[in-house]
Structures are given as structure tokens and as C-alpha cells.
Amino acid sequence: MKLTFWGASRQVTGSMYLLELEDDYKILIDCGTDMERELDFSQPVTGYQPFFPFEAAQVNLVLLTHAHIDHSGNIPMLYREGYEGQVLCTPPTAELAEILLYDAASLNYKKLKQAEGDSKKKKKKMDRLMVKGDLYLQKDVEDTMSNFVTLQFNRRFKVKDGVWVTFVPAGHLLGAAHVIVEAFDKGEKKSICFSGDIGRENYPLLVDPAKELPQTDYVVCETTYGARLHEDKVIPEDALAKVIQRACIDLPGRLIIPAFSVGRTQALLYTLNKLYTERGFKPIKVFSDSPLAYASTKIYQKNVRQLNKAAQEFYEENDGLFDFENLQYIQSEKASRAISNYTEPCIIISASGMVSGGRVEQHIAANINNVYCTILLVGFASEGTLGWKLMHGQKTLRIKDVELPVLATVEKIDVFSGHGDQNDLLKFVSKHKPERVKKVFLVHGEEESMVIFKELLEGKGYANVEMPEKGQSYEL
Asked: What is the pTM of this model?
């Protein structure tokens, strides 16, 4: 049995791990977009260039931990490169992955149209960019989704003779799973647990990560927050209520919340609904400005039985999770631009969460020098993004080649972060006894976080903790 790390190695995005069994049966765990990889359209293309560092046609099975694009985003490319197998995941993951992949395909098409400019040889240039740019379109997503097969949580599924797969709740996102693979290798049964992204306890809407996991020989653990502890100790309703009071009632002004469309937006809308329904909070106009957020919100509502007990009880009592007075979903770009003309106190929730493109960038550009505006950051932002610059107190922002002074109030809370912190990661690993774990692999984190978490695990008795390089293989 051999495990090769092809993504999220000493960086956060691009999760992709290839597990090879003794009979040359190959399983790919996740196939995510590398957000740190820059597309270069300037270099000429000289013939066919493979996208993956392995033969996609030789892969037998894909296991998907959850729908986020840094875990699912390159699956259509896998099929374009010749993969013919299935993608196994939970039912909500399949639903969310479908809308995320179609959204990515739409963005890819816009990139291609922008890159081709006014060229008269559009078809030829489009073909060249499709090879060089490694971009897939909607037809690729259609072909991909027809191969998704869903499995329920906690059901041990026989993939083939001597190979089993189990999906266990991970929290983090609707449908997200830890994936356990068991296989016979040279007459010996071996097992490995892939964490996916680890959630946190008592998160709005979501179930907690599984309290128990089967003992496995090997553990692959994400380390996004391997060196951090969540700062806010209050419940989400209290944290959000205080910000709204300051930003929209005491002032009064507008509150802009950059939030990812899938997961974070639903947690915010649900929390707002609870404030209005259970605490008699004064209704304030709320704009959810993202077609993708609208689509994913419907999926969350449809899968209410997959959510935590508190959310299910709220649904039964109120006949819904997200719809409340003064909530308006924004679909068109024209309607999005019109929000700037709304002069009453309001809350704008829009993507992207890191303020790296998307409609929220336009809202911030229009309000960054508005002293009656508050920008609330509610999650992780990669270094160099506008969200990171706001979080670190930069006094000016360059948006669309214009340098703008930051006169708006900038606040941050971390109660809506969907990633578990250092303690949550330690809880996950600790479910596997150190004396029985042969090796722990750390992935999906910045190298500095990994080093700190590695030292912590070694202090807890885990003797073999590895930080794989991209492309590094291990015989298990």
C-alpha cells in the first residue's frame, strides 16, 4: 500500500491524495483546486499537456470528503483527462458539489472570454486556452455529476473484495465527512483515516464532529488552525447582536459581512433568524447578495434532517430556518449594484469571504471610505487578500487600481469560522491511540502551523508525525 500527497502539502488548498493498493487499485481522496496556483495565459502551448502528475485513466475510485472547491474543484478535470470511475460521497456533498462546480465552470467561461479579448480567431484561441489554462466548462460538470454515487454516514461500504470505505460526520460543512479506508495488503488488514476538514462543536446548523472513530493504523489530519485557538467564547447570537447594535442601531449605518456562499452564509442567516425570532431583535433589512448562496441555502433547508438537533427543533417550531422579515436574496448583478442606493440601515452578506473578487469587493469599494459603514470579518483570510489586509489594519486598500482610504470601521469575530482550532484538531487525532498509530500525516495548513502542531502531537506521544512535501510517497 502506497500513499502519495499531490495537494495541500505544506499549504492550505488543493487537497488530493493517491492511495495505491497491492493489486494496482488506485483510490484518489479529494481532487481540489489549488487556490495558490496562478494561471498563466501568456506562454505558448506546444501540444498536449497533462493536468495531473499521474495518469487519471488509471485511477479506479474517487472519495470526496466534502464539497468545498479546494477539495472538489478539479474533479471535472479528472474526467477530461480520462477517468471513468465513480465519485463516492454523502448525499448533501453531492448536491453542494454540483452547484459549486457549475459556478466554477461559469467563472471559467468568463475567464476564457476575458482572455480571448477581441480576437477574430476566437475558436482557435479558446481551444488553446482550454489546454493551457486547464479550465473546464459546464458540459464537463454535466459529465462529472452523472458519476457521483452517494453513501450514508456510518455505513461500512464494500468497494471491492478486501476494500471498505466508511464516511463519518466531520462537522465543518453540510455533508462533510472523515473518510476511513480499510484494505487487505499482502494478507494484512491496514486502515487509514482522512480527516477532511474538521469542524467545531456547537456550530450553527451543523452536527458536531464524531465523538468516536475506529482505531486506524494511519491518520491524515488537516492543520488549518494548527497553531491557533478560537478567541471568541460567546455564542454566535451574542457576538453578532453586539456588532449589529453598534453598526446599524446606535450609529445607524450599514454592515457588510464578507462570507463564503456555501456554509458561512447559511450560519449567518440562521443566526439572524434566531435573533429576530427568539429575542425580538428589531428587523433590519438584510441583503444576501449571491446566487450561489441562495442555491446552497435551499439545499441546507432540504437537508434539515442532516443538521443538528437545535436546527431541527427551530425548523419544526418556525416552519423554516432562514426566511425572516426584511430578508432579500439578490440574484442579478444589476440588483447587486442597486444596493448602494439603499440609504436605510442594512446588512449586506456577500461573497467572497476573503474579499478576493466577487460582489463583496464592489460593496467594500463603494463603502470603504464611508464612516457610517462597518465591515465585519468572520473567517480565515489568506495573506495578500483584501480580507487579510483589512484584518491586519491596513489604512488604505487598492481596489481595481484605485487606492482608497479605509474610513469604515473594521471588526472581526471568529465564532462563525467553520474550521476547528488547535484543540479541535488535537481531539480528532486523540481518538486514535498513539501506541497503535503507525504514522500521522499533517496536511492542509501553512507550514508554520504544521510545525507547531507536529511538536504538540509529539509531546502527546505520537512518535511518527510527518509533514509531506508535494509528490512525496510513503509505503504503508
From this structure: 0.93
